[in-house]
Amino acid sequence: MTDRVDLATLTPHVALGALDGRYRRAVAPLTNHLSEAALNRARVHVEVEWLIHLTDEAVLPGAPRLSEGDKAYLRGVVATFGADEIAELAEIERETLHDVKAVEYFLKRRLDAAPDVLGEGTVLPRVHEIVHIFCTSEDVNNLSYALTVKDAVTEVWLPAASGMVDEVADLAREHAGAAMLSRTHGQPATPTTLGKELAVLAHRLRRQLRRVASAEYLGKINGATGTYGAHAVSVPGVDWEAVARSFVEHLGLTWNPLTTQIESHDWQAELYADVARFNRVLHNLATDVWTYISLGYFRQRLSAQGSTGSSTMPHKVNPIRFENAEANLEISSALLDTLGSTLVTSRLQRDLTDSSTQRNIGTAFGHSLLAIDNVRRGLAGLDVDGDALARDLDGNWEVLGEAVQQAMRAASIAGATGMEDPYERLKDLTRGRRVDGPGMREFVAGLGLPGDVEARLLALEPGTYTGLAERLVRHLDA
Description:
Blueprint: H1 24-27, H2 31-34, H3 36-57, H4 68-79, H5 83-96, H6 99-118, H7 137-174, E1 179-184, E2 187-193, H8 194-213, E3 218-219, H9 229-234, H10 240-250, E4 254-255, H11 266-295, E5 298-300, H12 302-305, H13 320-343, H14 353-358, H15 361-380, E6 382-384, H16 386-394, H17 401-413, H18 422-430, H19 437-445, H20 451-458, H21 469-472
Parallel strand pairs: 3-4
Antiparallel strand pairs: 1-2, 5-6
Catalytic activity: N(6)-(1,2-dicarboxyethyl)-AMP = fumarate + AMP; (2S)-2-[5-amino-1-(5-phospho-beta-D-ribosyl)imidazole-4-carboxamido]succinate = 5-amino-1-(5-phospho-beta-D-ribosyl)imidazole-4-carboxamide + fumarate
EC number: 4.3.2.2
Protein name: Adenylosuccinate lyase
C-alpha cells in the first residue's frame, strides 16, 4: 500500500463519512446547525448575549453601559461568522487546547478591534473581564447545544419530516377507495384499501411529529457546580437566579433551576427517543411500501428512479430509495438510542462523556434526514397498479369466509335457524383451499340465511369487502 497516494493528505479533504461525502446534498442544511463550526458560532452568540445581558441588567458595579451601536457590533460578530472566523478560531484553539476558552479569546480580539469600526468612543475595549464572567464552559456549551439542536429540529428536520408525511397523507387520500388484499402474517386476509393502510402510517408518523414539535429545550447558567457560588461571593445582593432565568428565556430556551456543573440533558434524551420512534415508524412504512412494490401493487417509474437497477440484470428497477431509507433509519435510531442512554448519566457533579457523545448529534439527525429524503424521492416515483390489486383480490375469494361466518352468527342471534357451527363450516370450506366466486356463492345459497342477509352476501366480492376503510382515511383531516 505504500506506493499509493495518501488520500488523507489531499486538499480539499476527502470525507471520511458518507454524510459529508456521497450524501452531502441531502444533509447539507444540518451543517448550519449541528456542525462544529455551527457550535462555535452558537458559543460566540451565547458569550455576546451574556455580556449584553449583564450590562443591560446593571448587576456589575462599575461596568459601563453598552450603546446600541456597541450591541449591534457585538451581534454582528455572530452574524458574519464565516470561513475566516472558523479558521481564526481553530488557530486560537491550537494554542489554548480548549474550545470554549478559544471562543473567549476570539471575542476579546473583537472587543479590541471595535474602535476601528465604532470610533474611540466605544466602551467595548474596557469590558474584557465581563466576557465569560461567572461561567464555566458548560454554561456556554449547554446553551449552545440547546440552541443549535432546537434550530436544527425546527428549521430543517421537522419541515422535511412533515413534508414527507403530508405526501404520504396525500397518497392515502388519493387511493382511499383502492381495494387491496390484506396480508396478516403474510397470508391473504380481510381486504382493506391501499389508502387506509397508508393513512395508518401517516397517522402514526404525525403523532410522533407532534411530540417532537412540543419538545422543551432546557438551559442553565449557574457556575461550576450549579450553585451560583462565584456569583454570590463576587457580587452579593443580586438575585442571580432571576438573572440566569431571564437570560436563558431571552435565548428562547426553558430555564432549568437545578443542575450540577452540566445541564442534565434529560430533554435531549426525551427528544431523541421521539425522533428514534418516528424513525422506526418510517422504517415500517419503507418495508411495507417495498413489499407492495414486490407484490406489484406499485409500479416504479423509470424516469423518477433515474438509476441502473442491476449491474447484470437490465430488466430490474430496484426499490433502492426504500432500502437506503431502511439502512439510514437503523443507523440514526441506534445513534439516538446511544445518545439518550449516555447523556442522562454523569458521574457526580460532572464527567466528560457527554462532550464526545454530543458531537454525534449531527450524524444521528443526518442519517434520519437522508432517510426522509430517500422516502420522498421513492414515493414520488410510484404509480398504483389497479389491475394488480384487482387480480390479487379476485384470486382470494376465501377471504369472504369471515364475512359469511359473522353474518351467520348475527342471523342466529336474530332468531334464524340452521346457523350452527359457523366457524367450523367455513373452515371446512376455506382452510388450505382456494375458493372462487361461484363456489362461495353456492355455499352461501345453501345456508338458508334470511333473504336480505343472503342477498347481501351474494352481492359481496373481495373488492367490495372493505368495510369503512375508505371513510377512515378522513381521520387524517381531523
